[in-house]
């Protein structure tokens, strides 16, 4: 599954300002973690944002839609269409709170490296 490379580059520019961020390929796209917690990502042409279960309602009011994987709705995660993100300020309005939410949690310890195959 492909994802929007241009949107990923825009997100990368914003998230890279945070020293404790990490880019990971997953869900057929790419996501960024902060302190080991998923904050944002790109799936298809959408920004995927972890808003928490308490933030879904307000995110939907702002124009986001629920994120699904197959038949399952992802709890606390929404999708924002790239057309809703015309500039840096609109992108920051989604990424900033997601980064702060991830940073507010205790850092996850790093996973041990996978055994060589």
Automatic annotation (TrEMBL):
Biased composition (Pro residues): 107-117
Pfam families: TfoX_N (PF04993)
Domain TfoX N-terminal: 18-101
Superkingdom of source: Bacteria
Signal peptide, first to last residue: none
Region spans: Disordered: 96-117
InterPro entries per record: TfoX_N
Name of the protein described by the UniProt record: TfoX/Sxy family protein
């Amino acid at each position: 599954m492909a994802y929007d490379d241009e949107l990923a580059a825009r997100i990368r520019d914003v998230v890279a300002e945070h020293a404790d961020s990490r880019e990971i390929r997953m869900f057929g796209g790419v996501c960024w973690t902060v302190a080991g917690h998923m904050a944002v990502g790109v799936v298809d042409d959408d920004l995927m944002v972890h808003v928490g279960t308490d933030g879904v309602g307000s995110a939907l009011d702002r124009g986001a839609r629920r994120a699904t994987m197959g038949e399952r709705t992802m709890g606390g995660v929404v999708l924002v269409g790239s057309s809703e993100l015309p500039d840096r300020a609109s992108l920051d309005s989604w990424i900033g709170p997601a980064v702060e939410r991830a940073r507010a949690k205790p850092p996850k310890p790093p996973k041990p490296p996978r055994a060589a195959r």
